[in-house]
Design goal:
Helices cover 41% and strands 4% of the residues. With 287 residues, it is mainly alpha-helical. A hairpin with an 8-residue loop joins strand 1 (175-176) and strand 2 (185-186). Helix 1 (13-26) crosses helix 4, helix 7 packs across helix 9 and helix 8 (230-237) crosses helix 9 (239-250). The longest helix has 16 residues, at 252-267. The mean pLDDT is 97. The structure holds ligand DDH.
């Protein structure tokens, strides 16, 4: 007797690659958006979805996509990430089988690879949670603070000093917006291409306080067109962090290798993958 059970759609690598391709092909659809790409804000969405993890209570992290809901969507650190969530909504409509949690991380992976960063291996399997799983405010770093705060925040996620510095290299990408964080400007001259320029600029430029009415931030003395946050500058002020800044400034391959490893760790914090979960590297569209 034949089973009347409906066939459950079990997505495979090709299905996730199709989602990847959809995102990759739309990254530059709106040339008026920032520097012409949604890539940076998608990386930031994936990071803020993941960086709420608490290694002691095992709460937060990318499993859940709870930033869909208030209060988490209204946390100050998440200001502006609606642009990224809205960008991904039509992708979710087109591929309804993917969870928001998997989609947001896949978008981060896609953005990093398409902005010429390293391969970032991906595992699917995150499940969306409801509003009750929203994390409390204050789990993401405060840009106005220094090394002690960075250690408190990132040790809570389970990272060490080397990993803190490797993660920060993401600030080669994107910019600050006065209507989001209050800060202003990009960190590098090529904010839609991932390189180790963030570290090189940190070490090689002369940085001075920007004279303006906004929050305290640095500008480069030469062009006054680049910026650093107090939390960025902590990486060269702290002796232990500085050693890693020097290594990554001198060696882009080392940065790419360490960045890929630490981003995979970040994107998988607290995700209970079944043991037989495959790990994939997506094929690039913009190769
Ligand atoms: Fe960041 N980040 N970030 N950041 N971040 C901002 C933008 C972007 C801090 C503060 C800010 C990471 C770490 C830190 C990206 C990725 C990552 C902005 C500006 C602030 C402020 C937001 C706005 O106005 O739109 C602080 C503080 C830290 C820290 O203390 C370490 C990490 C670990 C990542 C990562 O991806 C691994 C990206 C990308 C952006 C650019 C977003 C955009 O829209 O452009």
């Amino acid at each position: 007797q034949g089973s009347a059970l409906p066939k459950v759609f079990k997505p495979k690598f090709e299905d996730y690659q199709a989602v990847y391709n959809e995102i990759a092909n739309r990254l530059e659809e709106n040339e008026d958006y920032d520097d012409g790409s949604y890539g940076p804000v998608l990386v930031r969405l994936a990071w803020h979805a993941s960086g709420t993890y608490d290694v002691n209570t095992k709460t937060g992290g990318s499993n859940g996509a709870t930033m869909r809901f208030s209060p988490e969507s209204d946390h100050g650190a998440n200001a502006g990430l609606k642009a990224a969530r809205d960008f991904l909504e039509p992708v979710k409509q087109k591929f309804p089988w993917i969870t928001y949690s998997d989609l947001w991380i896949l978008a981060g992976v896609c953005a990093i690879q398409e902005m010429l960063g390293p391969d970032v291996p991906y595992r699917p399997g995150r499940q969306d949670k409801d509003v009750s799983a929203c994390t409390p405010d204050g789990r993401l770093p405060d840009a106005a603070q220094g090394q002690d705060h960075l250690r408190n925040i990132f040790y809570r996620m389970g990272f060490n000093d080397q990993e803190i510095v490797a993660l920060a290299g993401a600030h080669a990408l994107g910019r600050c917006h006065t209507d989001r964080s209050g800060y202003s400007g990009p960190w590098t001259f090529s904010p839609t291409v991932l390189t180790n320029d963030y570290y090189r600029l940190l070490l090689e430029e002369k940085w001075q306080w920007k004279k303006w009415n906004g929050p305290k931030q640095y500008e480069d003395k030469k062009t006054k067109s680049l910026m650093m946050l107090p939390a960025d500058m902590a990486l060269v002020e702290d002796k232990k962090f500085r050693e890693w800044v020097k290594k990554y400034a001198a060696d882009n391959d080392l940065f790419f290798k360490d960045f890929s490893n630490v981003v995979v760790k970040l994107f998988e914090l607290g995700v209970p993958f079944p043991e037989d979960t495959p790990q994939w590297v997506f094929k690039r569209v913009n190769a």
